[in-house]
Automatic annotation (TrEMBL):
<keyword id="KW-0508">mRNA splicing</keyword>
<dbReference type="InterPro" id="IPR014001">
    <property type="entry name" value="Helicase_ATP-bd"/>
</dbReference>
<dbReference type="InterPro" id="IPR027417">
    <property type="entry name" value="P-loop_NTPase"/>
</dbReference>
<dbReference type="Pfam" id="PF07717">
    <property type="entry name" value="OB_NTP_bind"/>
</dbReference>
<dbReference type="GO" id="GO:0006397">
    <property type="term" value="P:mRNA processing"/>
</dbReference>
<dbReference type="GO" id="GO:0003723">
    <property type="term" value="F:RNA binding"/>
</dbReference>
<feature type="region of interest" description="Disordered">
    <location>
        <begin position="692"/>
        <end position="723"/>
    </location>
</feature>
<feature type="region of interest" description="Disordered">
    <location>
        <begin position="785"/>
        <end position="816"/>
    </location>
</feature>
<dbReference type="InterPro" id="IPR011709">
    <property type="entry name" value="DEAD-box_helicase_OB_fold"/>
</dbReference>
<dbReference type="GO" id="GO:0003724">
    <property type="term" value="F:RNA helicase activity"/>
</dbReference>
<keyword id="KW-0507">mRNA processing</keyword>
<dbReference type="GO" id="GO:0008380">
    <property type="term" value="P:RNA splicing"/>
</dbReference>
<feature type="domain" description="Helicase ATP-binding">
    <location>
        <begin position="55"/>
        <end position="205"/>
    </location>
</feature>
<feature type="region of interest" description="Disordered">
    <location>
        <begin position="744"/>
        <end position="769"/>
    </location>
</feature>
<feature type="compositionally biased region" description="Basic and acidic residues">
    <location>
        <begin position="702"/>
        <end position="723"/>
    </location>
</feature>
<dbReference type="GO" id="GO:0016787">
    <property type="term" value="F:hydrolase activity"/>
</dbReference>
<keyword id="KW-0378">Hydrolase</keyword>
Length: 816
């Protein structure tokens, strides 16, 4: 499973960590001693020595390219330098002209804002804030904002010229994420229309292409003095890099000098397994070695747990005993803006998990591939920041020199462009010819076709009303459409919960499993969490990560706000209604109809998109092997797996997808034969309905009138209508005359005929008596209703418990 995506935090991993408040005053700011220590440490950063040089270059140029190795202080210090310059040069109020600093991942944006807030001795969310997907921590006081590159693109959709910013800083440009590549092209257009805007591009490596792209912008280097790093290679290639990494960590702790260890792995489950096995192996050594603090790091880690990587190593267990050591096991997140001090040893297995998109077949893959040479060098440099270090590469020197690319390919060349094209259409960017890295024409054409199939673009390539609403959601186009059309299936509340849970889903317990698929299982977990009033003890009892569910709740609230701004109706399907699962399944299929697979006679599934033979992922919860499934993604390891799948019916495919979509995209196969029969049956049904409509003729009103003579029929209706109005008018006149002559009939003996006051008095008395009786009856009925409601709820609870027990029994039977 990928660890660099938002949806990968382990759902069933109880989080018991907390943030220490040591060093903070009651108002949330640092005490004077800790603030003084931070400022003193800040002055040792290499970039501080070139502050005046940087400000001078910034004053004279609109675009600057700044190159400095990781650990030089670019991320935290350059925005503060810029902030000081903007404060001096502009006369407008600072909150109206902010400084923006983009980061490639949410973890880097949050941690950088926290560090800068500490240095400025302010509270995060006031003068310094951050904005990441589904989470904002800013205010009217904010003058420096850290945000992900994707969030800056979304802000441009609301304000195309980005008028709220005076200076924009693109950090970690060497990562070349998809959003960063698009930002380069878009900001180049904006700079031409806003001479007052300045751009600072910061990178860890020198790229001549980047300097040429910005018309020869000045390049400034930050000079860093690093400690020497010795690099070691293996004699032969390692097939099991996970086991080799664990062995290397244990050997370093046994034999090497004091110093912390940083080990890289690809996926979150690998990291957790490695941490567990390292703890076991070191535990077997007893008192022969010092204590260790094992921490892990990935992009979805909550901010409080991120802080553990900055804590010092544990002290020796006894005086003069072996020193303690901190061991950090991380994904590529440790390569970015997170600077971890006291790292003396780096273990590089030479692999990284990346997202790939095969434009020829239109399929996304998560693949483990070799790291490039520049990324390997960057990992090695992390060992020499504060002390001399060593880097252990778990591959051969020949592999480094001959089998690896010099640089990592930009993400725009290996990604699905659907989301980006949708944003560019919203921004009214005419084409991509001025972009630095042009994507393959085939990938761009396929993205336009898929958006057209989703209904986001019309025949001329312009945004439709549906596409305009889809672009306002920070989601994939398929998920955005699923959410937008969900009111048509009367289940927008349920789809909201599913979208939110997909942001943090990994594994679920059997108690919540729904055999119709993983989407409904996610919905069951969220509903139970809310039904138990977000109780932490309930999460602990069911081994569910409380922070992941709270994060999903936060995502859901943001999506509700998006739907409200778009005017999309909020509705729900009755939980125990017969159409509950069908409505939800149809809404999901409406967004993901391109990601459908059919079970062939060989036992494998054939996908409509790319015509790939795939298998169900072992983590899927489905009752057996359904004939048709809709899936969320394809994961490529030793085989191709579809993950997060749901059972759907064949007739739904014909009803919901564009006409003849599957017949055009499926090859000659069993799936296509079945769909041809379904299409033929559907066409006959439509033909029968048309014929039935034609055969409905008008019945003759008079002898001699033709059957279906519409004009004669309408003329007769008009005549009859006029006659009715005349009769009605005459009757009404007669009734009005009669009404004048009517008198009130006496209710009691002795009452005068026509005594209106006596009559009204009697009516009021009778009305009061009726209301009293009605009130008594209603009170009795309310009491009865409350009683029946409790009985009804008790029965519902018993039914749910009985269903859960039945599901558990079925799951146990299948496992046996």
């Amino acid at each position: 499973m990928s660890t660099e995506r938002k949806r990968n935090a382990r759902l069933f991993d109880v989080d018991r960590s907390s943030v220490s408040s040591e060093g903070y005053s009651l108002d949330g700011k640092l005490d004077s001693q800790r603030h003084s220590d931070i400022l003193q440490k800040r002055e040792t950063l290499p970039v501080r020595k070139q502050k005046n040089e940087f400000l001078d270059v910034l004053k004279k140029n609109q675009v600057i390219i700044l190159v400095g190795q990781t650990g030089s202080g670019k991320t935290t210090q350059i925005p503060q330098f810029v902030l000081e310059a903007v404060e001096v040069e502009t006369s407008v109020k600072r909150p109206k002209m902010m400084v923006a600093c983009t980061q490639p991942c949410p973890v880097a944006a949050v941690s950088a804002s926290q560090r800068v807030a500490e240095e400025m001795n302010v509270i995060v969310g006031e003068e310094v804030g951050y904005s990441i997907c589904f989470e904002d921590n800013i205010s009217d006081k904010t003058v420096l904002k850290y945000l992900t590159d994707g969030m800056l693109l979304r802000e441009a959709m609301a304000k195309p010229l980005l008028e709220m910013y005076r200076v924009i800083i693109i950090d970690e440009a060497h990562e070349r994420t998809l959003a960063t590549s698009v930002l380069f092209g878009y900001l180049k257009l904006v700079l031409g229309m806003r001479p007052d805007l300045k751009l600072v591009v910061m990178s860890a490596t020198v790229e001549a292409k980047l300097q040429d792209y910005f018309d020869g912008a000045p390049l400034m280097k930050i000079y860093c003095v690093h400690h020497p790093v010795d690099i070691f290679y293996t004699m032969k290639p390692e097939s099991d890099f996970l086991g080799a990494t664990i062995r290397s960590v244990v050997e370093i702790h046994q034999r090497e000098e004091p110093g912390d260890i940083l080990a890289f792995l690809t996926r979150q489950e690998e990291i957790e397994e490695a941490c567990h096995r390292i703890s076991e192996e070191i535990g077997k050594l007893g008192n022969k070695v010092g204590p260790v603090e094992i921490v892990y790091l990935h992009s979805t880690l909550p901010p409080d747990m991120q802080q553990k990587i900055f804590e010092p190593a544990p002290p020796p267990l006894v005086e003069d005993g072996p020193p303690g050591r901190k061991i950090v096991v991380s994904t590529i997140t440790a390569e970015t803006s997170l600077s971890i001090d006291r790292i003396a040893y780096v273990i590089d297995p030479g692999v990284v998990e990346q997202k790939f998109y095969d434009s020829r077949v239109g399929v996304k893959f998560l693949m483990v591939s070799p790291v490039s040479r520049d990324r390997a060098d960057m990992r090695a440099s992390l060992a020499g920041r504060t002390v001399p270090g060593k880097c252990f590469r778990l591959y051969t020197e020949r592999s480094y020199n001959q089998d690896r690319h010099a640089q990592t390919d930009p993400e725009i060349l290996r990604s699905d462009l659907g989301s980006i094209v949708l944003i560019l259409k919203k921004l009214e960017v005419p084409d991509l010819r001025h972009f630095m890295n042009l994507p393959a024409e085939e990938a761009l054409t396929r993205a336009l076709k898929e958006l057209s199939d989703l209904g986001a673009l019309d025949d001329k390539g312009n945004l439709t009303k549906l596409g305009n609403m889809m672009s306002k959601f920070p989601l994939d186009p398929q998920m955005a459409k699923m959410l937008v059309v969900s009111p048509g299936f009367n289940c927008s509340n349920e789809i909201l919960s599913i979208c939110a849970m997909l942001s943090g889903f990994d594994k679920v317990k059997a108690r919540f499993v729904d055999t119709d698929g993983d989407y409904l299982t996610l919905l069951n977990v969220y509903n139970e969490f809310k039904r138990n009033k977000e109780d932490l003890s309930w999460c602990d009892t069911n081994f569910i990560n409380y922070s992941v569910l709270k994060s999903a709740q936060n995502v859901r609230q943001h999506l509700v706000q998006c739907m409200s701004r778009c005017g999309i109706e909020m509705c729900r399907t009755y939980l125990y209604g017969p159409e509950y699962y069908d409505n939800i399944s149809k809404a999901i299929l409406a967004g993901y109809f391109m990601q459908v697979a059919h079970l062939e006679c060989t036992g494998d599934y054939l996908t409509v998109k790319g015509n790939q033979y795939v298998h169900l992922h072992p983590s899927n919860f489905l009752g057996g092997k359904p004939e048709w499934v809709v899936y969320h993604e394809i994961v490529s390891t030793s085989m191709n797996f579809i993950r997060t799948a749901m059972d759907v019916r064949g007739e739904w495919l014909v009803d919901i997808a564009p006409p003849r979509y599957y017949l055009k995209n499926f090859p000659n196969s069993e799936a296509k034969q079945i769909l041809e029969l379904l299409e033929k049956w559907k066409e006959e049904q439509r033909k029968w309905e048309r014929e039935e409509s034609k055969n409905k003729r008008y019945v003759p009103r008079k002898r001699g009138e033709e059957v279906g003579s519409r004009e004669v029929h309408r003329k007769q209706e008009r005549e009859e209508s006029r006659n009715k109005r005349y009769v009605l008018s005459s009757n009404c006149a007669w009734k009005r005359e009669e009404s004048k002559n009517k008198r009130y009939v006496p209710r009691k003996r002795g009452e005068e005929v026509g005594s209106r006051e006596v009559h009204r008095k009697q009516e009021r008395e009778e009305s009061r008596n009726k209301r009293y009786v009605l009130s008594s009856n209603c009170a009795w009925k309310r009491e009865e209703e409350v009683g029946s409601r409790e009985v009804h709820r008790k029965r519902e609870r018993e039914d749910r418990e009985r269903q859960w027990e039945e599901r558990k029994r079925k799951c146990a039977t299948r496992k046996q």
